[in-house]
Design brief:
The protein is an alpha/beta fold. It has 13 helices and eleven strands.
């Protein structure tokens, strides 16, 4: 009898261990999202504040990593599960036999927030030939400028490059140190107000070119499908909230993003040059595997331009870098 009791106790303990293991497996594992201080990432803070993540069945930790190289290193090492950056950035961080990355969904598009300011005698991009042009080498500004130059029949070697940050580039133009600059607000406005300056072009002329996206490793995409889909649903709900409640949304997002954007008025002013991607816009940008959207065109431009500067270490096709998994989802939400 004592032996039977012992066996029963052992069996009971085993059941408890199995149940505990099952409960642990079913518990939501934190999904860590790497970001930098940018207005385009505000809806993630809104989704957190409004409990959209919780309602969609995902536990999200927002991890601020300002340096994009450090962000990619953290992603490759598994310290974060996904990250935000611009479309053109991903190809540069691909390495032979290294981590594979794919785009999941778009976050925001520059709609006049970036541009090229120039002296008034420079009337077209082609007129930049032989001129001093300030921009940040290795950044989306260099990618953007080179797309414009190529469309005008020029190469970067046709201009005199002045390498500096976007803010410094705008300041240098206003003070007359350079003939043109690739920059953003508030320097676009300041440059337009300068007696010698005008706006040569801005990102409204090239939709989808300067676009922030969410990306992850191929391993994470395969292993954490439910969470990725939940993340995308929460993002879309947050973007819808911004449309319906802009003042309240800006207040929440400004506080969440913080830093230079902590003032809701500054946040709102910066947001004026940006468009958040909703579900319909993402569907159009990504398209499908059979009928790709314009995303792959932008990716190809990035591959070609960075290859021209010797910054690519692998040979890939745009389709290799696109995942449709986040958007292959019904709108049905999990049981609460």
């Amino acid at each position: 009898m004592a032996r039977l009791r012992a066996l029963a106790a052992l069996f009971g303990a085993s059941l408890l261990l199995v149940a505990a293991a099952a409960g642990s497996a079913g518990a939501a594992e934190t999904f860590r999202l790497g970001y930098s201080s940018w207005v385009g990432y505000g809806p993630f803070f809104l989704a957190k504040k409004m409990d959209y993540f919780k309602e969609e069945g995902i536990k999200v930790e927002l991890v601020k990593i300002e340096d994009v190289a450090v962000r990619f290193a953290a992603l490759a090492a598994g310290r974060i599960d996904a990250m935000a950056t611009t479309i053109d950035t991903l190809p540069v961080y691909l390495k032979p036999q290294g981590t594979k990355y794919q785009y999941l969904f778009a976050l925001d598009d520059s709609k006049g927030g970036d541009g090229v300011v120039a002296s008034k005698e420079i009337e077209t991009i082609a007129d930049l030939k032989g001129k001093k042009v300030a921009f940040t080498e290795g950044s989306v500004a260099q990618f953007y400028l080179n797309v414009l130059l190529r469309d005008a029949g020029l190469k970067q070697s046709d201009i005199e490059v002045v390498n500096m940050t976007s803010g410094d580039a705008g300041s240098a133009f206003v003070s007359g140190q350079v003939d043109a600059a690739v920059t953003w607000e508030p320097w676009l406005t300041k440059a337009k107000q300068a007696p010698h300056g005008h706006l040569l072009t801005d990102s409204t002329e090239n939709p989808g070119l300067i676009t922030d996206v969410m990306l992850a490793t191929a391993d994470v995409i395969e292993a954490r499908q439910p969470e990725i889909k939940a993340l995308y649903r929460a993002w879309n709900r947050a973007v819808d909230f911004v449309k319906e409640n802009p003042v309240e949304a800006n207040r929440i997002m400004a506080k969440g993003v913080g830093g230079w954007l902590k003032d809701p008025n500054v946040f709102a002013a910066t947001l004026a040059g940006v468009a958040y991607y909703d579900a319909a816009m993402n569907a159009e940008l990504f398209g499908t595997a059979d009928q790709p959207g314009s995303l792959q065109r932008t990716v190809r431009q990035a591959l070609e331009i960075w290859q021209g500067f010797g910054r690519l270490q692998v040979s890939v096709e745009p389709a290799d870098l696109v995942s449709y998994s986040a958007q292959e989802v019904s709108e049905t939400r999990p049981e609460r």
